[in-house]
């Protein structure tokens, strides 16, 4: 009998402590608590991440349009305008499908960035599973630097894509397979205006020219200066949705530019080009 009494009191005491701890961490009605603060911070980080993903493109305008439609829906619902509420309600019901269709590029980039950070970045998953770690590959950037200098000096347009772990097979298939060691003479020959391969981009991976004459997606960013042509817009477009670095040589001015993460640096010197490529490759490969 004494044992049952003690056991019951101990269970009540333990339950009371668990309840107090739970209220302290989450359901404290008297104000903010630790879990709520963490929840709010994480939501804020998510909103900021999404904003960085879509800023500077027409996606912002489309997202604003969706938000305005939702505000109209709430207004019609508040004033009990049943017909308009029903019409907009049907539109909102298929909102997730519309969102996936319209924002597929942004969603693909979001998932790619997340996967890269968790699996191929300097994260614990790579450390826990050694097979996921990539082997070091010697990358010599000198031939590329020499080639773009020569192409710029002769006002020959060029578009050279560097990729590390991003799967670009979709874009490689749009061109012609080369699969040759990188060399300055080969790059100059490819982009010669009389070459059948000079239109489009060259894709370089693991110190090899994988493909040439590749078609890249064009950016929809309205902030790109009007004097930049299709070559520059294609470079920015690819880096908006993939973790790549693109070197551009202007056919009009001979200036050399680099696109990375949806932005562009213009009129760069040979040393700046070398440094930018080495910095991009240095995370996973050894650049010489």
Structure description:
This protein is 54% helix and 15% strand. The chain is an alpha+beta fold and 288 residues long. The protein has 2 domains: 99 residues, no CATH class; 150 residues, 3-Layer(aba) Sandwich (YojJ-like (1). A hairpin with a 2-residue loop joins strand 4 and strand 5. It is elongated and about 70 Å long. It is built from 12 helices and 9 strands. The protein has a 7-stranded mixed β-sheet, sandwiched between helices. Strands 1-9 form a two-stranded parallel ribbon. The longest helix is centred in the N-terminal third of the chain and has 24 residues. The N terminus and C terminus are likely disordered. This is Diadenylate cyclase. Keywords: ATP-binding, Cell membrane, Membrane, Nucleotide-binding, Nucleotidyltransferase, Transferase, Transmembrane, Transmembrane helix. It comes from Candidatus Cardinium hertigii. One of its GO terms (molecular function) is diadenylate cyclase activity. Its EC number is 2.7.7.85.
State the main characteristics.
288 residues; YojJ-like (1; 2 domains; 7-stranded mixed beta sheet; 12 helices; 15% strand; disordered N terminus; disordered C terminus
- Beta-strand percentage range: 5-15%
The helix fraction, in percent, is 40-55%
Strand order of the largest sheet: 3-5-4-2-6-7-8
CA distance, first residue to last residue:
81 Å
CATH superfamily grouping of the largest domain? DNA integrity scanning protein, DisA, N-terminal domain
Largest sheet: 7 strands, mixed
CATH class of the largest domain: Alpha Beta
Number of strands: 9
CATH topology of the largest domain: YojJ-like (1
C-alpha geometry:
elongated
Count of helices? 12
Number of domains: 2
- CATH architecture term of the largest domain: 3-Layer(aba) Sandwich
Rg value: 27 Å
Give start-end ranges of low-pLDDT stretches: 1-8, 118-128, 284-288
**What is the overall pLDDT average?**
80
Class from secondary-structure proportions? alpha+beta
Order of helices and strands: HHHHHHHEHEHEHEEHEEEHE
């Amino acid at each position: 009998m004494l044992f049952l009494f003690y056991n019951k009191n101990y269970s009540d005491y333990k339950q009371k402590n668990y309840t107090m701890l739970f209220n302290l961490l989450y359901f404290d009605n008297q104000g903010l608590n630790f879990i709520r603060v963490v929840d709010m911070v994480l939501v804020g980080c998510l909103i900021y991440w999404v904003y960085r993903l879509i800023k500077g493109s027409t996606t912002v305008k489309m997202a604003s349009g969706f938000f305005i439609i939702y505000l109209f829906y709430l207004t019609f619902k508040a004033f009990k305008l049943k017909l308009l509420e029903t019409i907009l309600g049907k539109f909102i019901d298929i909102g997730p499908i519309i969102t996936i269709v319209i924002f597929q590029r942004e969603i693909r980039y979001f998932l790619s960035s997340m996967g890269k950070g968790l699996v191929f970045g300097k994260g614990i998953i790579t450390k826990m599973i050694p097979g996921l770690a990539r082997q070091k590959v010697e990358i010599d950037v000198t031939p590329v630097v020499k080639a773009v200098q020569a192409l710029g000096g002769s006002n020959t347009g060029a578009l050279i894509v560097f990729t590390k772990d991003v799967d670009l097979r979709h874009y490689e298939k749009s061109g012609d397979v080369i699969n040759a060691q990188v060399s300055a003479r080969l790059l100059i020959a490819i982009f010669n205006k009389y070459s059948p391969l000079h239109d489009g981009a060259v894709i370089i991976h693991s110190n090899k020219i994988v493909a040439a004459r590749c078609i890249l997606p064009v950016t929809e960013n309205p902030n790109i200066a009007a004097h930049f042509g299709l070559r520059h817009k294609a470079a920015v477009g690819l880096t908006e949705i993939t973790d790549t670095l693109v070197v551009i040589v202007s056919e009009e001015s001979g200036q050399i530019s680099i696109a990375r993460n949806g932005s562009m640096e213009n009129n760069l010197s040979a040393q700046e080009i070398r440094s930018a490529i080495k910095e991009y490759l240095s995370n996973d490969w050894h650049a010489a």
